[in-house]
Specification:
The protein is of the alpha/beta class. The protein contains seven helices and seven strands; from the N terminus they run αβαβαββαββααβα. Strands 2-5-1-6-7 form a five-stranded parallel beta sheet. A two-stranded antiparallel sheet has the order 3-4.
Amino acid sequence: MWGNGAQSTPSPATPSPSSMLGSAVSSSTPNDFHPSSQCLSKSLLGPDDYRTMCLLPSGMGMRNYLIEGVSGTGKTSVCRELQRRGCCAVNGDTDLAYQGDPDTGKPTDGVTHEHHIWHVDRVRALVADRQEPVAFFCGGSRNFSKFIDLFDGVFVLEVDLDTLNRRLDQRPEDEWGGKQTERELIVRLHQTKEDIPKNGIVIDATAPIAHVVDEIVRKAKQIN
């Protein structure tokens, strides 16, 4: 099963997690890191207020969860809903991602699905941050095997093919999945599931977003 992220420690060269929560600037290399996610520190609220907003059980310790799924299953929407509730939720596809080799992490030129990876050191630093009682990392990466053991639980969003196609129909051409070739790739990945964790907890993401997040939080409470 998944490991305990609280045991991980950041690299000395890595900025502190609190300093990494700033304005949104798209990064193309691991050295440019300006995440947009604003994790609401429990220090700004009373502990009971924080847990109520995030629907967390009393006594829950430091926990980190990964929310995965193919493009179009609702990872970004889940992230926004968690943030709306006051939870610490990181959009990995904008805050942690860059184009690089999945095995070595070395930056690559161009923009391809196969080279969409997350900066492992940044993930480790945020997982090791002890300012938040719980954090959700939302998004997909081709190198999740490099850091998946840091998480206390992994959720995989799933939708049926008709729902996926309807969602892709709404995407503009300049957004990933808007071009026909990209759409064909997404549909294939939906069928093969080759790009997502194999043993994640499956979440039916066809429901309204509030219900999807309710289910994620409910199942997160059950993970020891």
